[in-house]
Amino acid sequence: MMALQRKSDAAKAIYETFLNRLRETSAQQGLQQADSRLAAAAQLPKEPVFPNIKLAALGGIGGGIALGLIAIALAEYLQGGVRTKTDVERRLRVRYAGAVPTLQSTLGKMRATEPPQDYIVSHPLSVFAELLRALQAFLLLGGGSSNRTQGGRVVAIASALPQEGKTTTSTCLARTAALGGARTVLVDCDLRRRGSSEQFIHEKRPGLYEYLRGEVSLDEALVVDPASGAYVLGTSEPQQDARDPLTPNNLGRMIGELRGRFDVIILDTAPVLGVADARAVAAAADRVLVISRWARTSLRAVEAAIDVLLDAGAKISGVALTQVDITRYASTGHSDTYGYQKKFRGYYTN
Question: How many Å apart are CA 251 and CA 178, to the nearest integer?
Answer without folding.
Answer: 23
